[in-house]
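One chain shown below:
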Amino acid sequence: MLNQAIDHMMIENREHFMIPGDVVASVSVDNSLRHAFLVLTKVRYAKIPVLDNQGHFKGLLSLPMITDEMLGLDDVSVEALDTQCVGDVMETDVVTVANPYDVENVLHLLVDNPFLPVVQDDGSFTGIVTRREVMKGINYIGHNLDHYYQMTPKEAEAEHSKP
């Protein structure tokens, strides 16, 4: 369980951790792999969200998922990029969080994930919580905790309480 003071400060800044869905690079489940390859190459992200035409989260797509389709035993072929769509190769077993999300749970999940898709109960994609944004929040707490709380080392408390 998080320290109460840190939890309070993290929750207070929770809205700053999420990057809204309308500014997150994404592709449609129906897009060709060629289109997705171009998007991933241009944005230079490791993975991007995959959405359906109604804005529902469907999975994640990475450049290696696309290049795996291009690699044969003896050659590289780009024909698969035109014949297959994002839905054919995307990752669907993805950890997501709902908004408002539990900060402690997000901290645990970000250990193994660079970002977490934020998805509502109806499947609507809201945005992403990134490890980078959470680390900025932790940095803020590290520099400002004493502005919000009186901090006394436990050793000092013991010294003052001795008769």
Notes: The chain has a mean pLDDT of 88. The chain has one domain: 4-147. Residues 131-148 form the longest helix (18 residues).
